[in-house]
Amino acid sequence: MPQHLSSTTSNEYTISSVVNNQTSTANEMTVVEYKRIGEGAFGTVVEAKLKYTSHNNNTSTITTTTTTTTTDSENQWLGPFAIKRVPVQTEYKSRELEILREVNHPNIVSLRFYFEKESSNPKDKTIYQNLVMECLPSNLQNEIKYYKQSKYTIPYPHMKAYTFQLARAMLYLHGFGISHRDIKPSNILVDPATVTLKICDFGSAKKLEPNQESVSYICSRYYRAPELIIGCTRYTPKIDIWGLGCVVAEMFLGKPLFQGQEPELQLKEITKLLGPPGNSFFFNNNENYRGNMYSTKTFTCKIDQRFKQVFSNSPPDAIDLLLKILVYSPEQRASPREVLVHPFFHELKSKDFYVYPRGSNKPIKLDLFNFSPLELKLLGPYKDELLSSI
Ligand SMILES: Nc1ncnc2c1ncn2[C@@H]1O[C@H](COP(=O)(O)OP(=O)(O)OP(=O)(O)O)[C@@H](O)[C@H]1O
Questions:
Q1: Whole-prediction pTM value?
Q2: Residue 63 pLDDT greater than 70, yes or no
Q3: Rounded (10°) angle between helices 316-325 and 303-310
Q4: What is the pLDDT of residues 92-131, one digit of tens each?
Q5: 355: DSSP letter
Q6: For residue 2, how far is the Cα from the chain centroid?
């Protein structure tokens, strides 16, 4: 088993071959782990600092985007970083390292180093893969909970900025055909001081090839797209957009939107908002589905009225966005670029748009429209609309 860290202990060790993800060079480095920040189904995440050991002569530059930034020279500690440790060999195939090495986007957590290490328990021969990533101070689950405790929601301007960054990360990932496959608030890192968002946990992510089958038993229950629930195996990255919709809804409601008490009951929760799925949904996504179709409508009004009832405290433009995302048919569900151009985000374009980070009375400006040439290409005909009147 990996070593457990209490809040007062730290764990220091030296690794002879730590690969720098930017340069692909390997060096000996000393690692000090001093805080446990996450324990998931697959791995442990700890906060740590690293330094090149003294006989190394490495001067490559690395900076962190979070609070402490250290220069990268001999004998200086780099970090803080978050190290995710997962067993190298499990029956479950993780493509996390492969994918994190390929991606480079302001709204996706960046991988700085990686190394392999045996467990510190001499009886355990398991080899662990260690992913050293930039460290963010919070995640959306914590933020939602923080505001909920004081009977508030995350401020609307922050919600808009966070949702926009999430959709931007999806535009980029889906452009490569990569589906995250586990979108949920705890996998969305945020820095409330800068209102920055970055997706993490690519342990379930996969490049989906058209006409290639993939397992449908992925994604955490409350955030699973309806096609996954009914066992579709030829799904598309649109499953992540469903997750995005659930996350936006949760920011407004302060609790998960669809809380199925058992896997089979998750579809029932969805029908309470969307009504029953049509026959074509089952036919197109899994014609062999033999589970409950929940074909009886449990409310009498139209769907847009139903959304207004459920999201009674949310602004009309947010409800309209959710109506375009929480759609049974993956083909008709909004794409990342359709999300980005939605009027819900128009306010972000204003030159007077500022946010007040939590606990601060100093407004800050956000740089949300610094699209790379690749992103502009992916936006295609939506580019002009998105960049108009900034
Ligand atoms: N780079 C990071 N910076 C700060 N916190 C992080 C970082 N990466 C992960 N975490 C925290 O650690 C938690 C677990 O990480 P991650 O989701 O990658 O592991 P996991 O084993 O796949 O967990 P789960 O089974 O809950 O999805 C995350 O929810 C997040 O709060």
A1: 0.93
A2: no
A3: 120
A4: 677 999 999 999 999 999 999 999 999 878 888 889 999 9
A5: B
A6: 25
pLDDT tops 80 at residue 74: no
Residue 69 has pLDDT above 50, yes or no: no
Quick one: angle between helices 238-253 and 140-149, nearest 10? 20
Q: Is the pLDDT of residue 3 over 90?
A: no
Residues 6+ apart with CB under 8 A from 289: 230, 231, 282
**Across-strand partners of 114?**
19, 131
Please report the pLDDT score of residue 40 as a whole number: 74
Q: Which ligand 1 atom is nearest residue 204's CA?
A: 22
Q: Is the CB of 186 under 6 A from ligand 1?
A: yes
Strand partners, 273: none
Residue with tokens 């189904």: 41
| 367's tokens | 């740089």
CA of 277 to the centre of ligand 1 (A): 34
In the chain, the domains with their CATH numbers are 21-134 (3.30.200.20), 138-387 (1.10.510.10)
How far is the CA of 46 from the CAs of 203, 235, 336, 370, in angstroms? 16, 33, 32, 31
Instruction: Give the HSE-up count for residue 254: Cα atoms under 13 Å, Cβ half-sphere.
Output: 14
Kindly report the length of the chain: 390
- What mean pLDDT comes out for the span 285-289? 97
Mean pLDDT score, 153-180? 98
CA-to-CA distance for 170 and 149, rounded, in angstroms?
30
Bridge-based pairing of strands 26-39 and 44-52 is: antiparallel
Ligand 1: which of 37, 45, 141 to mutate, most ligand atoms within 8 Å of CB? 45
Per-residue pLDDT averaged across 309-327, rounded?
Answer: 98
**Closest ligand 1 atom to 42 CA:** 21
How far lies 140's CA from each of 333, 355, 356, in Å?
A: 23, 17, 17
Catalytic machinery residues: 182
Residue 99, SS3 per DSSP? helix
> How would you classify the pairing of strands 127-134 and 178-179?
unpaired
Predicted local distance difference test score (pLDDT) of residue 185: 98
At which residue do the structure tokens 């007040």 appear? 356
- CA distances, 87 to each of 8, 48, 98, 292 (Å): 25, 19, 15, 37
Would you say the CB of residue 139 lies under 6 angstroms from ligand 1?
yes
